[in-house]
Design brief:
Blueprint (H helix, E strand, L loop, with lengths): L7 E2 L8 E2 L6 E5 L2 E4 H22 L7 H21 L2 H24 L9 E6 L2 E6 L8 H23 L1 H5 L8 H42 L5 H30 L5
Antiparallel strand pairs: 1-2, 3-4, 5-6
């Protein structure tokens, strides 16, 4: 279940066009396992975020610099919002690291794929008798495997939060309730809605990022020097919004999970 896209120019006489391939792009193989450029992008973002975190930690001062002040304002604002939603200082301390990590990680993956020239660095592989450039890095969230992995992390975190805070017995009553036929049906509907989050989480993120990438590819093909600039600015905004939506939905679902069932 891996989806990536690429831009190719095909020639038949004097005609050219765009060929879009929803297929994995493997840069290489490790013990027979394909190493895709979307996975390399995820690893690159992880390395960058860890490096930035270590650098900021090393430069922490009692009298903060402008960078430290900005970082503290962003983190503090996010923490206050999480505390307001969860209505608890204790819960905010528990779940803010999860929500912030999801937001920053997805934002980094969305934005790094928009860096100029990042798709121009790669290796040449033979495809249908011709040499094709396979870039080392490609927007990670255009790969449905990666967005589905994010959805699984969010889903499992939400369910664990409900079990740990509400308790297994009370939390399971949201989904399995034999007190009346109506409550049983409502519980089944609630269970199905919980499972549907895996699909909605993963496809929402994948669809928006994939569509934006395709829009940029088309713009680069038809108007290569003018149109892509405002579109890239728009895609930066879309990447920010999609990371925010994913993190906020996770926060709201955690809020619902830790409430006592009625």
């Amino acid at each position: 279940m891996e989806h990536t896209e690429s831009l190719e120019t095909t020639h038949e006489g004097t005609e050219s066009g765009i060929a879009v391939h929803l297929a994995p792009e493997a840069v290489g193989y490790v013990f027979g396992v394909p190493l895709t450029n979307t996975l390399l992008t995820v690893w690159l973002v992880m390395a960058v975020l860890i490096g930035v975190a270590l650098l900021l930690r090393k430069r922490l001062r009692l009298v903060p610099s402008k960078v430290q002040t900005s970082a503290e304002a962003l983190v503090g604002g996010g923490y206050d919002y999480v505390k307001e939603v969860l209505e608890s200082e204790e819960y905010a301390r528990r779940f803010f690291p999860l929500i912030a990590t999801i937001f920053i990680f997805i934002l980094g993956i969305n934005w790094i794929g928009l860096l100029p020239g990042i798709d121009a660095i790669g290796v040449y592989h033979e495809s249908h008798g011709a040499m094709k450039l396979v870039p080392f890095f490609h927007p990670g969230n255009t790969d449905l495997n990666i967005t589905f992995a994010f959805a699984i992390v969010a889903f499992v975190s939400i369910e664990i939060a409900g079990v740990l805070i509400v308790g297994m017995a009370k939390y399971s009553k949201k989904f399995i309730n034999f007190s009346s036929p109506l409550n049983f049906i409502i519980g089944i509907i609630e269970l199905l809605s919980e499972l549907a989050r895996l699909i909605s989480f993963s496809f929402r993120l994948f669809g928006n990022i994939f569509a934006g990438k395709m829009l940029l590819l088309v713009a680069l093909f038809f108007v290569p020097f003018v149109l892509p600039v405002p579109l890239m600015a728009f895609e930066l905004f879309v990447g920010l919004i999609q990371a925010f939506i994913f993190a906020i939905l996770t926060l709201f679902f955690v809020k619902l999970a830790i409430e006592e069932p009625h």
